[in-house]
Structures are given as structure tokens and as C-alpha cells.
Amino acid sequence: MTKLIGLTGGIATGKSVVSDYLHQQEIPVIDADIVTHQVEQTGTPGLQALVDAFGQRILLADGALDRQAIGRIVFNNPADLKQLVRIIDPFIREEIFSQLKRYRDAELTVLDAPTLFENGYVHLVDEVVVVYCDPVTQLQRLMKRNKLSIVSATKRIRNQWPLQTKCDLADTIIYNSGTMTTTLTQVDRWLAKETK
């Protein structure tokens, strides 16, 4: 039976850097963001459920989900964000369990989930790794990456659990405020302990 590692962090803390590196080491990674995109594709029951709740305004002209439109809706209203999670979460869980079956013989499998704690996925995993960076770096990265104002970026960060709270609940913390080499050295050290 595979050991399931929950990999999480805050938005723009560098979790994807760690996730991509683990994937390069041929460790199976289930990416909750990719799963979310899969279950919200055109023609899926997941997308239909979202349209039923939020209306046609969340669709692009070709019928695909307009992620910016739904982002504007849910990140400005906590009740809408809760409703979005409640609707789409069962579809995400089903796909995660389906992928887990494929990797049951692997020594380690990683569940890369930004909302590991917020959406209750932490109960599925054997161990939690949090990728941390300092708040100023996080804010700057998010503004640059998503082309957001300081107000919008701050709002998105505040929609997640505080990073310090996640660190307090982690089994391992990877510090990612410095260089890529420093970050990946920590990952190698952690991996060596996990796979010996």
C-alpha cells in the first residue's frame, strides 16, 4: 500500500516547484488543481453543476468555464466560495480516489492540494509537507504571477488558512523564500528519509 503524502502551502509559496521536482524524481503526483480542471471541463457533470448554481455568466462564448469570471464572483463573497467548494468537491474526491487506485503499489504518492486543510483532504494522507515562504515574498509572487493588484492578491491569500497555521500542523516544512537550490536540497533531504 502506498504512503500518501499531502503536499500543500499557501497560494504562490512555491508548492508547484516542489511538486514538479517530485514528479521529475518519478514519484506519482496527484495534482488537485489539474483534477479540478478535469472535472470542470466542457460537457462534464461538474461544470453543469456549477452552471446550475451560478448561471451562464461563468461560461465563455465556447461553453468552457470562464475561470476569471467565477474567480471574481467567489473571491468577493465567502458564501459563494463555500458554495463553489460544496458543489465541486465530490467530483474532485471521486477523481482523486480513482487516481489513488492506480498508484497503490508505489512506495510514495503525493497529493498536491493547495486546500489540503481547508477542504478536509488532510484526513486522507499519512503525512503533511508544507511549502512556506515569507508573507512579503508570497504577496509579490502572487501579484506578479496572476497580474493582481495588492488588494486582490491580499484577498486571495486571506481566503486560505494562515500559512503559519498550516506549518504548525505539518510533519515537514520546506522553506522556499531563498534560492531554488536551497529549496530542492531540503526536498532531497526529506526524500532520503522517506525512501530509505
Automatic annotation (TrEMBL):
<protein>
    <recommendedName>
        <fullName>Dephospho-CoA kinase</fullName>
        <ecNumber>2.7.1.24</ecNumber>
    </recommendedName>
</protein>
<dbReference type="InterPro" id="IPR027417">
    <property type="entry name" value="P-loop_NTPase"/>
</dbReference>
<dbReference type="GO" id="GO:0005737">
    <property type="term" value="C:cytoplasm"/>
</dbReference>
<dbReference type="GO" id="GO:0004140">
    <property type="term" value="F:dephospho-CoA kinase activity"/>
</dbReference>
<dbReference type="InterPro" id="IPR001977">
    <property type="entry name" value="Depp_CoAkinase"/>
</dbReference>
<keyword id="KW-0418">Kinase</keyword>
<keyword id="KW-0173">Coenzyme A biosynthesis</keyword>
<keyword id="KW-0547">Nucleotide-binding</keyword>
<comment type="pathway">
    <text>Cofactor biosynthesis; coenzyme A biosynthesis; CoA from (R)-pantothenate: step 5/5.</text>
</comment>
<dbReference type="Pfam" id="PF01121">
    <property type="entry name" value="CoaE"/>
</dbReference>
<feature type="binding site">
    <location>
        <begin position="12"/>
        <end position="17"/>
    </location>
    <ligand>
        <name>ATP</name>
    </ligand>
</feature>
<comment type="function">
    <text>Catalyzes the phosphorylation of the 3'-hydroxyl group of dephosphocoenzyme A to form coenzyme A.</text>
</comment>
<keyword id="KW-0067">ATP-binding</keyword>
<comment type="similarity">
    <text>Belongs to the CoaE family.</text>
</comment>
<keyword id="KW-0963">Cytoplasm</keyword>
<dbReference type="GO" id="GO:0015937">
    <property type="term" value="P:coenzyme A biosynthetic process"/>
</dbReference>
<keyword id="KW-0808">Transferase</keyword>
<dbReference type="GO" id="GO:0005524">
    <property type="term" value="F:ATP binding"/>
</dbReference>
